[in-house]
Amino acid sequence: MASLMKLRLISRRFSTLSSAPLRICVVGSGPAGFYTAEKIVTNQFTRVAQNERCSFFGNVSLGSSVTLAELREMYNAVVLSYGAESDRSLGIPGEKLPGIYSAREFVWWYNGHPDYRNLDPDLKCTDTAVILGQGNVALDVARILLRPTEELAKTDIASHALNALEESSIRKVYLVGRRGPVQAACTAKELREVLGIKDLSIHIQHADLCITPADENNRIRRRVYELLSKAASAGHARVLGQRELHFVFFRKPDGFLESDDRNGHLGGVCLEKTTLKGDDKLKQVAVGTGVHEDVSCGQHNDGIWFKLALKSIGYKSVPIDGLPFDCYKGIVPNLGGRVLADASQDHMQYETGLYLACISDDIDKGLFTSNPPKPGREGLVHLLDSRNNRVVSFDGWEKIDVEEKRRGNLKNKPREKLTTWEELLKVACE
């Protein structure tokens, strides 16, 4: 369902203490947009969109369907919750070699996003995959690659991804992190799920399992460490055909290597050993030691063979025409959710009526201005009609929900996702 919403525009009209009509537009393309609307109205996602004072506009793209400037003309406040839809770059040699994907692309592929249903990662050419990163997204990708497909078949994974995974040759996954187990960016919940995969052998170097008294005082980090330590102590006797998950700590990628047997394709990665610097145990940074090792594809007998690498190193926002943007950091400059027109001066200047998602305090403080009155929903409807933009209402969104669940029921799974824009729009507009 979420894949239909290239952009979600949720118009909120409510009364202030002065009884002046106030219109707010929430702009978002994923859970962030609905999360913000949820904060404004209620805790229940569906009730937000069904509220008579809330209007839902699906299949509307910021930039091509409507500009930010036009939204600001029509609404007293525009709240940006469109998330981070681009990938951070490692900035190392070989990063463009075929066989390297971002975790975002891979996640959207197996979740049935129409723009990525044809990603077609080659899961048959190697028995090993390397994931750079150890956060929750990295763990989720590892879980999809290693979980038995008979279990995945009972989930809402996209059918094209399930078919590819059923033919996958991957039996080993390496999760590579710059820092140690205490600093891993994952949560205990996500870690527990991947460690609990049936018949999975976990490999962790005991030398990497170090913890200080300061680390032990942090409950969340201590719990992650305990789970990893327990997994390492459980042993990993090799069983023919058994799937393996290797946690590799204190390593950072220094360059991707080209394959010897497949010209122009990924063959390996050069890793540099790291050490931690800094006093704060939870904010220590990993710095290179100058000691390198090649994690290769068939080039050394003791190397890790793989032709598939996934980068899970974080996302960055994309610039929007008319919106202040820090290209270096990949963020919209803001202070407490209020967008800054210019953050370089001693006296910071805010953009009027332009916010990021974290705005609850501003609502309470009455910082949203209600003058002059704005056309809001009616103005947006008129504008989109004049451009022949095919808008999907929340009723249409619910039709997609019902149809996906109906198709899923026929296959004994929660839902069968619609993975093309044409099919999504056809179902929504019937």
From TrEMBL:
InterPro entries registered for this protein in UniProt: FAD/NAD-bd_sf (IPR036188), Ferredox_Rdtase (IPR055275), Ferredox_Rdtase_adrenod (IPR021163)
Catalytically driven reaction(s): 2 reduced [adrenodoxin] + NADP(+) + H(+) = 2 oxidized [adrenodoxin] + NADPH
- Which Gene3D superfamilies has this protein been placed in? FAD/NAD(P)-binding domain, NAD(P)-binding Rossmann-like Domain
Under SUPFAM superfamilies, the record lists: FAD/NAD(P)-binding domain (SSF51905), Nucleotide-binding domain (SSF51971)
Q: Which UniProt keywords apply?
A: FAD, Flavoprotein, Mitochondrion, NADP, Oxidoreductase
Q: Could you name the Gene Ontology cellular component terms for this entry?
A: mitochondrion
Q: Does the keyword Ribonucleoprotein apply?
A: no
Question: Which metal ions or organic cofactors does this protein require, according to UniProt?
Answer: FAD
Sites binding NADP(+) sit at Q134, G135, N136, V137, R178, R179, E190
- Top-tier EC class: oxidoreductase
User: Where is the protein situated, by its record's location annotation?
Assistant: Mitochondrion
| MF-aspect GO terms | oxidoreductase activity
What family name appears in the similarity comment? Belongs to the ferredoxin--NADP reductase type 1 family.
Give the protein name, as stated in the record.
NADPH:adrenodoxin oxidoreductase, mitochondrial
Instruction: Provide the species name.
Output: Phtheirospermum japonicum
